[in-house]
Amino acid sequence: QVQLVQSGAEVKKPGASVKVSCKASGYTFTSYGISWVRQAPGQGLEWMGWISAYNGNTNYAQKLQGRVTMTTDTSTSTAYMELRSLRSDDTAVYYCARSIPGGNGMDVWGQGTTVTVSS
Amino acid sequence: DIQMTQSPSSLSASVGDRVTITCRASQSISSYLNWYQQKPGKAPKLLIYAASSLQSGVPSRFSGSGSGTDFTLTISSLQPEDFATYYCQQSYSTRFTFGPGTKVDIK
Predict the structure, then answer these.
(1) pLDDT in tens, B33-69
(2) Residues of chain A with pLDDT under 50
């Protein structure tokens, strides 16, 4: 079945970096993009960015530009999201999601990865 | 960036009620509007894409309408499993944005 499986929870100190992985299975990886979405405790959904698994093109949210990098490894059907210079307000659950071409939504989601930033 | 607003921010309803949630974009987004349902501790689930197309497997009591800047999600007869938070999301811009969410709880 189509699924996205994310890496495990992380605890980081302020100023550190975190890299979350998202392994896809059950579909042709390069036929879809991957979006990353985060959710701070008790808050709404925040779109972080998108990467094309076909050619690696990216679009990032303005507020994260310069701190976030999204990559893919087509040999293992895995997407990665790295966030640098972590702050306490980066504490959130991070989701990867398969993006349907043409802007038709995100139809398959990973289980979420909790990233806690604390000194 | 395109800003999305939703109203109401929360509502209380009973099983069997008809529920309507509104989403507004800060500029025209044509029909590039998607709706998601999220339950506590779970990942969001795509309900409606392209403003009015029902995602496969989603019950027909969910429907979407609208274009341009104003959109609506309707649940025709609220079921116990529909108590959740609902988000709209625009995909017109290359930088997607979500609305703040509407929490639907039991009256």
Answers:
(1) 999 999 999 999 999 999 999 999 999 999 999 999 9
(2) none
B97 chain-A contacts, CB cut-off 8 A: 47
Residues in contact with A76: Cβ distance below 8 Å, sequence separation at least 6, in sequence order = A23
- Both tokens of residue A22? 């998202």
Q: Which residue has the tokens 């609220």?
A: B78
Residue that the structure tokens 């990665």 belong to = A80
Q: How many CB atoms lie within 10 A of CB B25?
A: 24
Separation of first and last alpha carbons in chain A: 40
Instruction: Give the C-alpha separation, A96 to A34, whole Å.
Output: 7
Mark which residues 2-61 of A lie under 8 Å from B by CB.
35, 37, 44-47, 50, 59-61
B55 touches chain A (CB under 8 A): yes
CB of A95 within 8 Å of a chain B CB? The answer is: yes
* Shortest distance, CA A63 to any CA of chain B (angstroms): 10
- Per-residue pLDDT tens over the stretch A78-92: 999 999 999 999 999
Conformational region of residue B66, where left means phi above 0, alpha means psi within -120 to 50, and beta covers everything else: left
